Amino acid sequence: MPDDIVFSAQGLTKIYRTGDVEVVALRDVSLAVRRGEFVVLLGASGSGKSTLLNILGGLDVPSSGEVSFGDHRLTGAGEAELTTYRREHVGFVFQFYNLIPSLTVRENVQLVTDIASAPMDIDEAIGMVGLSERRDHFPAQLSGGEQQRVAIARAIVKRPDVLLCDEPTGALDVQTGKLVLEAIARINRELGTTAVVITHNAAIAAMADRVIVLGDGRIQRVTANAHKVSPSELVW
To answer: What distance in Å separates the CA atoms of residue 225 and residue 216, rounded to the nearest whole number?
Structure first.
């Protein structure tokens, strides 16, 4: 595998079964993600975006197909091995922030450093998302966008190879969403962290290096973006 390939997936299919009912979430999906790329997974609800992201992040396993992180094969890995993979290589950002209410911004971010082998400075991570002046505040004292940026700082403080974001602006208004996207773009740009961002908002695709459009569990098209825009230029 080329050295610049972070993720390689071949023929991924995911079927969820409840009794006699089968739901096919992914259908024969193949893709590669390069180191340092900013990739947007675009598609309607139920298109398979979250299932694909969860498989790349080691939170779920495919029913069939192969997926690798660099030279490390994720398919067939045990739970302990996947836990180590997630802890050492992946930062997650979800639509909902999952902050601990009784801890300050700094304390929420610090939690992750206790399990990271070579974390960055806590205040550096908080500064990268523009919250240095809010580091001693509690989540209830923050806006939704600020809480999401805390979640991003928490994800990046362990210096992950990849940042996987599932609808990070889904619960935010347009202007606040742009601030969150700017934080993700800055991390991708300045740290070289590979970013894969799920959205159903087609406007966000304009800031990606590459856009992968999913529908009905399949990749419908892949588009390279030669003229990326900054989040502040997005028109939603």
So the answer is: 23
